């Protein structure tokens, strides 16, 4: 099981705070029919469905049960 990460979660310091101990491995990935956009009046990113779009991010695999409980899902991942 793995998670598709994008935006601020790609920053190493933020990732470490969220992920905690447990390792796993990361590799570049894309999410088809999605885009990463900025939240209005903010610097924060959001993931939205967008036909024909390609969201760039990282695929984090080899997770512990606690890490998986972050609640994110992986669909249409190309690594």
Can you put this structure into words, describing what you see?
This protein is of the alpha+beta class. It contains two helices and four strands. Strands 1-3-2-4 form a four-stranded antiparallel beta sheet, with no helix packed on it. The protein is globular. The protein starts with a strand and ends with a strand.
Helices, strands, pairings?
Elements: E1 2-5, H1 12-19, E2 25-38, E3 45-61, H2 65-68, E4 77-78
Total DSSP E strands: 4
Succession of helices and strands: EHEEHE
Strand share of the residues?
over 45%
Helix run count: 2
pLDDT averaged over residues: 80
Uncertain segments are 72-79
Helix content: 10-25%
Query: Shape from CA axes?
Result: globular
Query: What's the main sheet like?
Result: 4 strands, antiparallel
Query: CA-to-CA gap between the ends?
Result: 14 Å
What topology, given as strand order, has the largest sheet?
1-3-2-4
Radius of gyration over alpha carbons? 13 Å
Q: Output the structural class.
A: alpha+beta
């Amino acid at each position: 099981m793995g998670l598709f990460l994008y935006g601020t979660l790609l920053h190493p310091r933020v990732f470490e705070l969220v992920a905690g101990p447990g390792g796993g491995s990361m590799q570049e990935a894309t999410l088809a029919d999605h885009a990463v956009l900025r939240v209005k009046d903010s610097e924060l990113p959001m993931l939205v469905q967008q036909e024909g779009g390609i969201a760039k991010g990282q695929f984090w695999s080899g997770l512990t049960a606690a890490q998986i409980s972050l609640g994110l899902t992986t669909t249409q991942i190309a690594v």
